[in-house]
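Need tokens for this chain, all 128 residues.
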Amino acid sequence: MEAKFRVFCSVARAILCYASQVWGFSQYRVVEQVQRHFIKMVMGLPRNTPDYIIYLESEVEPIFVHTLVSHCRYVLKILEMPAARLPRLVALEVIQRSLFWFNDVSGIAAALMGTLKTCLLGDPGLRL
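Here are the structure tokens for all 128 residues:
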């Protein structure tokens, strides 16, 4: 399975994640379905196998994790550009107004922080 998955990552995931630096902050069912279908086919699993079982047994992360990391790296790269560059100016405006991708990424970060607080402290009311 490992060799087949390497081929999947190098070919299919490269195509599925094309330009994910721009759209990678959102999760798309269709993109995830392609990967899940491939894993089910390789592992010989029935079509009605729950998604969480697929990810646990195959130890494969959802494509959304890959695209989100790609998007965040791209944004960080843009923010390191010289102050006069248009992509940096647009990104700063999006951040200041909490628009588009910044709104979604902020929601993900807030959800993760809430989960992290609960896991580490056991009490969501405590502050880190």
